[in-house]
Amino acid sequence: MPGLPVWTRLCPVDVLRHPVVAGVAELLAAPDIQAALHEGQRAGTYPAEVVAALRRIGVAKLYTDEAEVFHLCGLNAIAAAVDGSLAITLGVNALALLPVHLGAGPELRARVFRKINDGAFAAMLLTELDHGSNLLRNEAAASPHPDGGYRLSGEKHLINGATHHDVLVALMRTARGGAVAFGDFSVFCVDRDDSVEALPRWSTLPARAADIAGVRFHGTHVPEDNLVGKLGDGFSLVQRTLTLSRGGISGLASGSASGALALALAYAHTRDVYGAPIVGLDAIADHLVAHAELDLVTAAMAVKAAVAANALGIGAAIYTAAAKLACCALAEEAVEQGRRVVSSRALLADRPYEKFVRDVTLYGVFDGTSHLMLTDLSLRLPQIVKVRDDVEPTLPRVAAMFAAPPRSLAALGDARAPVRHLDLPAHARALDAIDGGVGFTAFVALADALVALGRGLRGHKAWNDQGVRFALAEALAWLECAFATVELADPARRAAVGAPAWSSGQAVSPDILVGALAGLGLRARARLLEVAAVAGLPVPADMSEVERDLVAARTAARPGARAWVRAQVP
């Protein structure tokens, strides 16, 4: 099917074999549907008619009894490649229902799923206007109701689906005392009624047609059996939910990068300013090459996060955090490269590219900001860089992840699931030892340097500098992206980790792959040098040689990469 995001090609599971996913892709490819979505973005109107059409083809199945990671992440990527407002309108259902999959008992789960299958949509009520990402400061409360159950009061804000969606999954304070504790919060499934006030919609820069608003509870009565999990388990349940949902957000970012690239390529192949299509200009071709490289990396890391989440559940935290951080940032850069190709027409509201310029900015703050992801990754650095008595072979562990069959969402939330980290240098060496289509030696040096610097920072005063920790955490994210990209886009390494081979015509351009990896290596190198300089630590590798190798590889691949974008006739 033409126009699909790179995510669908790299994914080891053929999501389009599911009739509903295929039906969604076919529906969203229709010109009249795209025109309706575009007009909705301009007018800022909720995409009710398109949502109704998606319900008719059975999209609810993907959220309820048939819900699993690959189909939901693929749905996010496919929708985001067409329209950001629709994408997050669909995506919020997966987010809101995750706590139900992970924590609800069979009876509550069945009741909620029955409503979704009957046509209801769900919304996740986490944030409050005054407290932002610090959920522990939230004030909206659930107190005992005289007739049994709970009485809800307070406001939630910046909620996707706040006025249109009927199943509200809300994090509420259920205990007060001295110092705030994790056990002070619980999650409830709330059926919208007259006591639930929908507050005025916010006017947003991105996703203008999405239903972003607030909710005010006026003593809303919630029965005891609408409590999700146990009383006081809410914060832990939300943490597990967000750990898994971040892979879905990276799918949104991936779809956005791919959708923007398709428009930029089409424009460059048809826009004639100097007597021929502008794709023939080297500067334009180079923007498209950079866009394609960023699109590839974003897709690979998003797919790797989905693979890890399916196999490891909440034990995939490092992959989902790295994906959320890197994919959202890279997608923004990708859209900027395409904007330079489309130029002034990317700023016109009646042209299709401008929606990507606006919408891509949402994903980086959705379900946790980049600062939260850097904090999460930096907290894991001590375990990642610790001295190991023996080195476990890494390829079998990665292959086991790829070999894991799709699992239901309910099976992914075991709070006891271990967070296991690969030995980075060992994995870099294992990938480098495979005779693939692209070199990987530079990443051995980069992995060695990251681990050595991480060990050098233990007990060092520079570890107290958040900027230093964040720089090292960002370098870790770029290395994880490099691993994901070479595992999924290089045929020999793809086979080594057990991912299925592509069908005819689906292979990734080797020149685009070389450039993508070089870009990641240069990003990681810059962050590692920054850490070494601020902390006054030696870099245990010749970073000048790493830079020369990466730049030389990218330079050698540039002619072939330009030829590739010029051959992508729309």
Task: Describe the structure in your own words.
The protein has 570 residues and is α+β, with helices and mostly antiparallel strands. Among the domains are: 121-232, Butyryl-CoA Dehydrogenase, subunit A, domain 2 (Beta Barrel), CATH 2.40.110; 423-567. The protein is 56% helix and 9% strand. The chain has 19 helices and eight strands. The protein has helices at residues 6-10, 19-29, 31-43, 48-56, 69-80, 84-103, 106-117, 234-270, 282-312, 317-342, 354-363, 370-384, 394-403, 424-432, 441-457, 466-489, 491-496, 510-535, 543-567; strands spanning 122-125, 141-144, 150-160, 167-173, 185-191, 196-198, 212-222, 227-228. A four-stranded mixed β-sheet has the order 1-4-5-8, covered by helices on one side. α9 (282-312) packs across α18 (510-535) and α15 runs antiparallel to α16 (466-489). The longest helix has 37 residues, at 234-270. The chain is globular and about 75 Å long. The two termini are 13 Å apart. The mean pLDDT is 94.
Mean pLDDT comes to 94
Strand order of the largest sheet: 1-4-5-8
Beta-strand residue fraction: 5-15%
Proportion of helical residues = 55-70%
The number of helical segments is 19
The total strand number stands at: 8
Order of helices and strands: HHHHHHHEEEEEEEEHHHHHHHHHHHH
Show unreliable segments.
none
**How far apart lie the N and C ends?**
13 Å
Instruction: Report the major sheet.
Output: 4 strands, mixed
Rg from Cα: 23 Å
How would you classify the helix and strand content by structural class?
alpha+beta
Overall form = globular
